[in-house]
Design brief:
- Helix content is about 70%, strand content about 5%.
- By secondary structure, it is mainly α.
- Among the domains are: about 1-135; about 560-610; about 610-640.
- Helix 14 runs antiparallel to helix 16.
- The longest helix has about 50 residues, at about 5-55.
- Mean pLDDT is about 90; it is low at about 455-460.
Length: about 650
């Protein structure tokens, strides 16, 4: 199967092409089911490939499938090639597996939409691009997928582009990601200059072999981190992701919870030897930005009233945890949390979509309440996702988040800094438990506030929430099961239960930093964190059951610390003035210098052209004058005028 790993991205691409040609004819729901079938087929191929890798010795679990020579130009040789190894196949498994569930869910969610088939054209194209990103053997193939998911993100976020807010959100995502893309491109240029190749194996081998200079490794690390900040929504480039909730809910689940936003984390883990070779301040910066983003987004989530906006800021926060793990040298913990997060966050987003569907597209949590009785399956599965993200054992989120906090606590090289980052991470975990409990109470418990707004739903005068159809509920049930048992991937009890660690170890052994903590410390931290999270959930229950929301929801948090507003002001005023000044310099100085040289040459030519009249008598006069001057020169020199 390793020789045909190209089938994994090819199948969604075939779904894309078929729906482009026949999608409208197939209609609703056949075009959606076709797209889901293609993604499901890619999952089956990935699963078989996984078993093929597992059956091989540890040192043989890496295979490059070269499709053709893409760019053979001088010293640059880039192949269109795919890399199958434990990291890429792990990513491909949950991209295709969870992607298939989301495709099925979308068949029910998008039912009746006039652009039903077009939506699945974009979904399949996105799946193809994301698989190109993670399976790419070199940075350029990854960059092709990187740009592809950015384009698909724009298309899907602004899918309902007749709404001005959706069109604006799509453009915002596209422009913000271009900043990160610039960092990725600079990193590619530096890598080629340093090792003469864009292949990950060449770059990582140079780092492990000591031939990659530390300053170059640091520059590559920071440029790739800038790219990761754009794609994975970290400070200061997170601003696109909350607005991306304007897209249909399956988009939020697929792109902004389970797959695209994890691309930055994947990229950093892929080049972990380069990060380990860089100066020690580089991973520290990654950890600081991750912890700061996690805390910042968690504080904002506390005061959001849109059911999807809470989950959007939660996603930003959880991605911050993953970058804290990367900066701590805990790459296995970063991937572990990425996988468990894909389970419970996809569940929560799809659950929120089920609520929105049952509430006739209402998203304001202040107009919900007591929905558990009318939507029992949605409520039950959503509650499982809540317990997983809140860090309640034995749900999946507890194990992965605990690994990250432990890595920060036990960091051996810079203990003072990382103890502070551990404190930030712990406080963020408590905030997570608090705002997710708040969301569950406001949506599924308390008073049925939707009864007070039944007249606001236009034609739905007899408005009453209802449960979603089975095709939307089945993915919720499957994801809730994964959110419960997902922790078995890497349980910390014995060496034999650390399955993910052994699976990824050959790829991260150079960069992975093992912390120094006794068994007592590990158990104490785990039990203490779980107890504090339960206490935070209890506080939230007390506050919101007593309707004391205003005490913990200041307006500045609802406004996202006004950071987005500041960015808009800056880009519209001093930023615009700076751009206009740059354009003036380009127009009048840079272009002026070029145009000035051209004008001078043209005018000089016009003067010289006058000597070329075309009349023989004028040329004869010039020749005669030249002869006279030469004779005069020789005569004067002969008599000694010039010595």
């Amino acid at each position: 199967m390793l020789n045909v790993i190209w089938l994994i991205p090819l199948l969604p691409l075939c779904g894309f092409v078929i729906n482009v040609v026949l999608g409208r004819r197939l209609g609703d729901p056949k075009s959606g089911l076709l797209a889901a079938a293609m993604c499901g087929a890619a999952f089956i191929v990935t699963l078989v490939t996984y078993f093929d890798l597992v059956s091989r010795p540890e040192e043989a679990r890496q295979h490059v499938a070269t499709i053709f020579s893409w760019i053979p130009v001088g010293g640059l040789s880039v192949d269109a090639a795919f890399l199958a190894d434990p990291l890429s196949i792990t990513m491909a498994l949950f991209i295709t597996g969870i992607g298939t569930l989301i495709h099925l869910y979308a068949v029910g969610y998008m039912h009746g939409d006039p652009k039903f088939s077009k939506f699945f054209v974009y979904l399949n194209l996105f799946a193809f691009s994301m698989l190109m990103l993670v399976l790419g053997e070199n940075m350029l193939v990854t960059f092709l997928g990187w740009e592809g998911v950015g384009t698909c993100s724009y298309l899907l976020i602004s899918f309902w582009h007749t709404r001005e807010s959706a069109a604006t959100a799509g453009k915002k995502a596209f422009v913000t990601n271009r900043v990160g893309d610039w960092g990725f491109m600079i990193a590619m240029f530096l890598a080629f200059q340093a090792v003469g190749s864009l292949s990950y194996s060449a770059l990582n081998s140079a780092a492990m072999g000591g031939t990659l200079v530390r300053s170059t490794a640091t520059a590559i690390t920071m440029m790739l981190f800038l790219g990761a900040c754009g794609k994975s929504a970290q400070l200061p480039l997170y601003i696109w992701l909350p607005d991306a909730m304007e897209g249909p809910t399956p988009v939020s689940a697929l792109i902004h919870a389970a797959t695209m936003v994890t691309a930055g984390v994947y990229l950093m883990v892929r080049v972990n030897p380069v990060i380990a070779t860089a100066f020690t301040w580089a991973p520290a910066v990654i950890a600081i930005v991750g912890a700061a983003t996690a805390l910042f987004a968690a504080t904002v989530a506390v005061a959001q009233t849109d059911i999807k906006k809470v989950l959007a800021y939660s996603t930003v926060s959880q991605l911050g945890f993953m970058f804290l793990a990367v900066g701590s040298g805990a790459y296995v913990a970063a991937i572990f949390h990425m996988v468990t997060h894909a389970f419970f966050k996809a569940l929560l987003f799809l659950g929120s979509g089920s609520v929105i569907h049952g509430m006739h597209h209402e998203q304001d949590m202040r107009r919900m309440g007591a929905l558990r009785k009318l939507m029992p399956i949605t409520a039950g599965t959503f509650i499982i996702g809540w317990l997983a993200i809140a860090g309640v054992p034995p749900f999946a989120g507890f194990w992965s988040k605990d690994e990250i906090l432990l890595a920060a606590w036990a960091h051996p090289t810079n203990p003072a800094l990382f103890k502070v980052l551990w404190g930030v991470g712990l406080f963020t975990a408590l905030l997570t438990a608090f705002y997710m409990t708040r969301q569950v109470i406001m949506v599924f418990f308390g008073k049925a506030r939707w009864e007070d707004h039944s007249g606001d739903h236009g034609a739905h005068g007899d408005f009453k929430p209802h449960e979603s159809p089975a095709i939307m509920l089945l993915p919720l049930v499957a994801l809730s099961g994964l959110s419960i048992v997902g922790g078995v991937l890497n349980l910390p009890f014995t060496d034999s239960t650390k399955r993910l660690l052994h699976w990824l170890e050959p790829l991260v052994h150079f960069g992975e930093i093992e912390g120094h903590a006794s068994a007592g410390e590990k158990w104490g931290l785990a039990v203490g964190t779980a107890a504090l999270c339960l206490a935070s959930m209890g506080v939230a229950i007390f506050v919101y059951q007593r309707n004391r929301a205003q005490a913990v929801e200041p307006q500045i948090l609802a406004d996202g610390w006004r950071y987005d507003r500041f960015v808009s002001w800056f880009m519209g005023h001093p930023g615009r003035q700076a751009f206009e000044a740059t354009a003036w310099v380009d127009r009048n100085i840079v272009d002026g210098a070029v145009n000035g040289v051209a004008t001078g040459v043209r005018r000089s030519g016009a003067v010289l052209r006058r000597t070329q009249s075309g009349f023989v008598r004028n040329y004869a006069l010039l020749i005669g004058g030249g002869v006279v001057l030469m004779l005069a020169w020789f005569l004067l020199r002969a008599v000694g005028v010039f010595g």
